């Protein structure tokens, strides 16, 4: 129980030599699914000391699933991208990548942000680091020949680079919770990654964000900030992680570490953006102007409301509504953080803030699910809940392409409006379901799968096992109840690395 002013959370025994948690021993869905590959993990199975360690297996599985996703795009790669608009939707294999090779001037050798485009968008509408990634891929794409072959090569080069990002993503998730490496298998096997990873370049930001979370879990706030700044230079959403981190550091009093993280993030973002801001300000602003002025689009709750009511929502109204709802979400997150009986885990709050952004944004492109996958796995590593959510996202993935096929074919084939609205509702409900499960884990920590293994916050870094210095509401009431009566102080019993109880030595407890 926490004390009134300073409380110490249970020590994370994963820092010792505790064996890795095996999902087939703890999760009935994982145990049932393992029958397809020989059954649950047995006593004679490899323990991770040979060539097939958990992290290596997860990386190989991630690469394999990514390759299957590339195979799923074969109809488009072979002909549908080039010979008909509707076919790329009916085969659910659309990708922005080949279309933007010529459409954003890469085929003509134009420099992103500096050279003006001839179409309706004057400059490349992507953040700077993503633009650099696209430019590097264009440099690696063989020139000459028919444009169709160049676009195929551009997609293939990008797919190879994005595959590396997918492997990095899976490895970072597997290594974040040291005693639960096999949770990374959820990322590696996620169908949404296989289906959406080559639609756009989002997985670059997702991989950088996962690497940042890994650095924070290792107690390296500056490295966390640098990687988060690079991720924010690739996509906007990673900066949101600084909000829950602020709340958690406030409750634990870790202001210096939070300051290091913020400085690292700001510095890395400026290093990437400042040259373009100075030398090509009009091109640099294009991403932010495009995001501000973009109409309500596919997958968003605002599109659902517009279609059901017949009242189109303007970009200005949608921006205002989304901003107000995000403010409410942040306030709710703060109340949850300060009043929870135990300090929430970092990735739990990170998942909730990004999910709130996804649910309130005025567009939900199919690849945006990538933002949530690693955070969902770390926040709620339960196969049943993850698969329920993924099933909803796969249904939405199919629904949006069938709806586009319906509109592109003149309402002759595909999914009509009512069917697409049902797909949007499935996406919203699936994400909300996972949010509810995470909030339940925060309010009743004994249900948290990670804390059931004796850990406190293995992704929390300096927050793991730290004392609370600010609590409110229910947490403060519990703290007052936990204040011991005056008298001789009893020795604190801790868990040693062998798993046996021990009293602290003369040096005291380092908690």
Total individual domains: 1
* Strand line-up in the sheet with most strands: 1-2
Order of helices and strands: EHHHHHHHHHHHHHHHHHHHHHEHEE
* Major sheet description: 2 strands, antiparallel
Judged by helices, strands and strand pairing, the structural class is: mainly alpha
Mean pLDDT: 87
Q: What share of the residues lie within helices? A: 55-70%
Our Rg estimate from Cα atoms comes to 24 Å
Low-confidence stretches: 1-18, 482-511
Distance between the ends: 14 Å
Shape: globular
Strand content: under 5%
Mind explaining what this structure looks like?
- With 511 residues, the protein is an all-alpha fold.
- The protein has one domain (52-468).
- The chain is built from 22 helices and four strands.
- Residues 1-18 and 482-511 have low confidence and may be disordered.
- Residues 1-24, 481-511 are annotated as: Disordered.
- This is Glycosyltransferase 87 family protein.
SSE order and pairing:
Elements: E1 7-8, H1 23-26, H2 28-33, H3 54-72, H4 74-83, H5 85-90, H6 96-103, H7 128-140, H8 147-176, H9 184-189, H10 191-196, H11 202-217, H12 221-232, H13 242-252, H14 255-279, H15 281-293, H16 301-309, H17 315-339, H18 346-360, H19 369-379, H20 383-408, H21 417-443, E2 467-468, H22 473-481, E3 494-495, E4 501-502
Antiparallel strand pairs: 1-2, 3-4
Helix pairs in contact: 3-8, 6-8, 7-8, 8-11, 11-12, 11-19, 12-14, 13-14, 13-17, 13-18, 14-15, 17-18, 18-19, 18-21, 20-21
